[in-house]
Write a structure and sequence with these properties.
The structure holds two protein chains of two kinds. By secondary structure, chain A is an alpha+beta fold. Chain A contains eight helices and seven strands. In chain A, strands 2-1-5-3-4 form a five-stranded mixed β-sheet. In chain A, strands 6-7 form a two-stranded antiparallel sheet. By secondary structure, chain B is mainly α. Classes of the chains: A alpha+beta, B mainly alpha.
Chain lengths: ~250, ~250
C-alpha cells in the first residue's frame, strides 16, 4: 500500500506547529497503524530528519498511551479499538491520511502527536484514595458483590485513560473519563465509605480543566473500550445527591 | 495524657459555600437547565393544547372559543385573587425559567469554548453520535429566543400587528398569520423549536442522572414524539390559518 500522510509536527510545547506531508510506500495491510508510523520514522532517521514523536507503550490496547486523530476519527475509523490495534487493511492503497494530536486547552501538545494528559492524574488523585483496610488480605468472597455490580464496575474500570473522549467531545469535556473512574469505585461496596465525597471532589477537579457535557454522545462512540455514557448519568446523579442529601453524619460532606 | 482531638461530626459549612459550589459547577448548571427545560416543555405543551382551541371556532353565542380561553387564563383563581394575578405568577415562573435556562447555557457555552480553545482539527470531524439537533442547540435556542420576542410583540403586546385588539385572540391570530412573511417566520421557529426539543427532551434525562436500561431506549422515542407533536400541532395552526381554513 502506498499512502500519503499529513502529520502535525511541533518541536516543543511553545513551538509553532504545522502539517508536513510524508509518503509511506510499501505499507503492509497487516501492519498496525503504529507500525506504519515506525516505518515512516525509520526512513526519516535514515534521511537524518527528526522522527515523528508519538505516545505508545503496550501496543495491545490496554495501556492508554497511544491515541491520535486519524482523518477526523479519534483512534481511527474502526469502532472500539485504540490506535495501536488499528490495522492498515482498514485503509486503501493511495489514501491520504491526516494525523493530528488530541486537541483541548487542558491537554496541550508536548511534541508532534504527544499531548500532556496530566489533568487526568489530578482527577484520579481527587477521588482515588479509598478508606480500605490495608491489613492482611481479606478472605475471598468475604464482601459479597452482586454479579451485575461487579460487571458494571468492570465495564467502567476498563477505561484506559487515553483521552479519546476529550478529543472527540466538541466541548473538550472529560465527563466520560471522570464518570468511568468514579463509578468503578462507586458501584462496589468497598467504594461506599467515600462515595459522595469522591463524587464532589472528582467532578470539581474535572471542571477545573475541562468543558461541560452537552450529551452529544461522541465520547462513547470514540471510546476504544466502548464505555457507556450511562456512567455519566450515574456520575451526575451522585454529584447532585451529594449536594442535597445529608451525608455529613456518614462522614461524607 | 492528652485527649485525642476528634473531628467534628458535622462540618459546619456556610450555606453560601454550598450554593456557590453546586450552582456554579457545570454539572449543577446542567441540572438546572434540565429542570427549567422540563418546565418549559410543560409550558409549550400547555400552550399548544390551548391554541388548538382556534379550530373550535365560535360557540352558539358567536363568541370564539379561543377568546374565552384567554379570558379564562386571565381570570384564573376567579374572585379569590385580583384578576390576572395567577396568570402573572405563571408568567414570572416562565420568565425565571427562561432566565436560568439561557443564563446557564451562556455560562456553560463560554466554559466550553475556553476548554476547546483555538484547537481545531484539520480534518473535518466525522461525527459518529452527535446529530444535527445536538450540534445546533445554541443556534436553535437563539432563533427560538428571537422568535419569542417577536411572538410577544405580535400577539401579546400587539406592537408588530397593526390590527391588534386586546382580548380578540381569534381575530389577532388571523390578522397576523395571513401575512405570508409572518407565517413563514412562524414555520421556521417551529422547526427550530422541534429540533431543540428533539435533543433537549432526551438530554435532560442524562443531565438529571436518569439512565436505566429499562427505559434508556424510550428516552429517545419520548424526545422524538414530543418534538413531532409540537411541530405538527403548531404547524397545523399556522398552515390552516394561512390557507384560510379557519374563519
Amino acid at each position: 500500500m502506498d499512502l500519503t500522510l499529513k502529520v502535525w509536527r511541533q518541536a516543543g510545547p511553545d513551538a509553532e506547529g504545522g502539517f508536513k506531508t510524508y509518503e509511506a510506500n510499501g505499507v503492509s495491510p497487516e501492519a498496525s497503524f503504529l507500525e506504519m508510523l515506525d516505518q515512516v520514522n525509520e526512513k526519516l532517521n535514515e534521511a537524518g530528519e527528526e522522527p515523528i514523536a508519538f505516545d505508545h507503550d503496550c501496543r495491545e490496547g490496554i495501556c492508554g498511551m497511544c491515541g491520535v486523530m486519524i482523518n477526523g476519527h479519534p483512534h481511527g475509523p474502526q469502532d472500539g479499538t485504540a490506535t495501536c490495534q488499528l490495522h492498515m487493511r482498514k485503509f486503501s492503497d493511495g489514501d491520504s491520511i491526516v494525523i493530528e494530536p488530541w486537541r483541548s486547552t487542558a491537554m496541550p501538545v508536548v511534541r508532534d502527536l504527544i499531548v500532556d494528559r496530566s489533568p487526568f492524574d489530578r482527577i484520579v488523585e481527587a477521588g482515588g484514595f479509598i478508606t480500605i483496610n490495608t491489613g492482611a488480605a481479606p478472605d475471598a468472597n468475604m464482601t459479597r458483590i452482586p454479579k451485575e455490580a461487579a460487571d458494571s464496575a468492570m465495564d467502567a474500570a476498563s477505561c484506559i485513560g487515553c483521552a479519546a473522549c476529550v478529543a472527540a467531545c466538541p466541548n473538550s469535556a472529560a465527563n466520560l473519563f471522570t464518570a468511568a473512574k468514579m463509578q468503578h469505585l462507586n458501584l462496589l461496596p468497598q467504594g461506599q465509605p467515600e462515595r459522595y465525597t469522591r463524587a464532589v471532589a472528582m467532578v470539581e477537579t474535572m471542571e477545573a480543566y475541562f468543558g461541560s457535557c452537552t450529551n452529544h454522545g461522541e465520547c462513547e462512540a470514540a471510546c476504544p473500550k466502548n464505555i457507556s455514557i450511562d456512567f455519566i448519568a450515574m456520575m451526575n446523579r451522585d454529584y447532585v445527591k451529594a449536594q442535597f442529601k445529608n451525608f455529613a453524619r456518614a462522614g461524607q460532606a | 495524657m492528652t485527649t485525642q482531638q476528634r473531628p467534628a461530626v458535622r462540618q459546619r459549612r456556610r450555606w453560601q459555600d454550598w450554593l456557590s459550589g453546586f450552582f456554579t459547577s457545570s454539572v449543577g448548571l446542567k441540572w438546572m437547565m434540565a429542570l427549567t427545560g422540563i418546565g418549559l416543555l410543560l409550558y409549550v405543551l400547555a400552550h399548544l393544547v390551548g391554541n388548538l382551541k382556534i379550530f373550535l371556532g365560535a360557540n352558539e353565542f358567536g363568541e370564539y372559543e379561543i377568546d374565552l380561553y384567554s379570558e379564562a387564563l386571565r381570570n384564573l383563581g376567579g374572585h379569590l385573587v385580583p384578576a390576572g394575578s395567577i396568570l402573572w405568577l405563571f408568567r414570572l415562573g416562565l420568565i425565571a425559567a427562561f432566565v436560568i435556562h439561557i443564563g446557564a447555557s451562556a455560562i456553560l457555552t463560554r466554559r466550553n469554548w475556553d476548554a476547546r480553545g483555538m484547537n481545531r482539527y484539520e480534518a473535518p470531524r466525522q461525527y459518529a453520535a452527535a446529530n444535527y439537533a445536538s450540534r445546533t442547540m445554541r443556534w436553535g435556542g437563539t432563533i427560538i429566543l428571537l422568535f419569542l420576542l417577536f411572538h410577544l410583540a405580535d400577539l401579546t403586546l400587539g406592537w408588530a400587528n397593526p390590527s391588534f385588539e386586546h382580548g380578540q385572540v381569534f381575530d389577532n391570530v388571523l390578522a397576523s398569520l395571513t401575512r405570508p412573511p409572518v407565517a413563514i417566520l412562524y414555520l421556521i421557529a417551529q422547526a427550530a423549536l422541534a429540533l431543540h426539543i428533539f435533543h433537549g427532551a432526551w438530554s435532560l434525562f442524562q443531565s438529571l442522572g436518569s439512565a436505566n436500561p429499562r427505559y434508556n431506549a424510550f428516552r429517545r422515542y419520548f424526545a422524538a414524539a414530543f418534538a413531532s407533536a409540537m411541530f405538527l400541532g403548531n404547524v397545523a395552526i399556522v398552515v390552516a390559518v394561512w390557507a384560510g381554513w379557519v374563519s
